[in-house]
Amino acid sequence: MARDFSRRIRTWFARHARDLPWRHSRDPYQVLVSELMLQQTQVSRVLEYYPCFLARFPTLESVSRSRPAQVREAWRGLGYYARARNLHRLARTVSPPNGTGVLPNAPEALRALPGIGAYTAGAVASFAFERRAALVDTNVARVLRRVFAPRLDPKSSRGQRRLWEIAAAILPATGRATWSHNQALMELGALLCSARTMRCPECPVRPLCRTGLRRNP
Ligand code: SF4
């Protein structure tokens, strides 16, 4: 079932994915910036600010050489400025003379950096380095729960742990396929299986989905 699920969402993603600029990049810094921006800001707004921020700060090192206030200034309009502060702290940690200037590719090593939680670590590992790493954000949690475990309480720590276990258990065999698999999971949660609507009749995993089958037998 895991293989079938992954194949279905990747095929759907290849046909229906939105063309978003960060999906064309495997540059770890660019992927990191997009993930930090997308955490608490709508895609439409990130589309506006992402290119301007990268034009102002094209590399991690350029962030590390700047003052925190300059990074915050470029972040203006996106809100939640702790993200800009954390990006600056991370850049100082990773860039010379404190570090090698290279972002690590393993989720565990990424998690040790300022402001990087489990989701962002999985996102950077799989989207920039094509590592076979799981990720669970709000969208992914909703899809996994509806498909595999509709009775799970996603707010409990047990429920969260279980969702991460499911996310890891259904990963495809290769890192390359994991890139599309994780992107597809997030896209499905954004476009078809959102918090407000479930577009089950159009959904590629309806035949496998415990919620979808119950709603539309
Ligand atoms: S079938 Fe419906 S509930 Fe299940 S994942 Fe698709 S949209 Fe969500």
Task: Describe the protein in words.
With 217 residues, the chain is mainly α. Helices cover 61% and strands 0% of the residues. The chain folds into 2 domains: 102 residues, Endonuclease Iii, domain 2; 103 residues, Endonuclease III, domain 1. The protein binds iron/sulfur cluster. Iron/sulfur cluster binds next to helix 9 and helix 12.
Question: What would CATH call the class of the largest domain?
Answer: Mainly Alpha
Portion of residues in beta strands equals under 5%
Number of domains: 2
- Helices and strands: which structural class? mainly alpha
Sketch the major β-sheet. Answer: none
Over the alpha carbons, how many angstroms does the gyration radius reach?
18 Å
Bound molecules: iron/sulfur cluster
The number of distinct helices, counting runs of at least 4 residues, comes to: 12
Tell me briefly what this model is.
About 60% of the residues lie in helices and about 0% in strands.
Secondary structure elements and pairings:
Blueprint (H helix, E strand, L loop, with lengths): L1 H15 L11 H13 L2 H14 L3 H5 L3 H8 L6 H13 L12 H5 L6 H12 L8 H11 L8 H13 L5 H17 L18 H6 L2
Helix pairs in contact: 1-11, 2-3, 2-8, 5-6, 8-11, 9-10, 9-11
This protein binds iron/sulfur cluster.
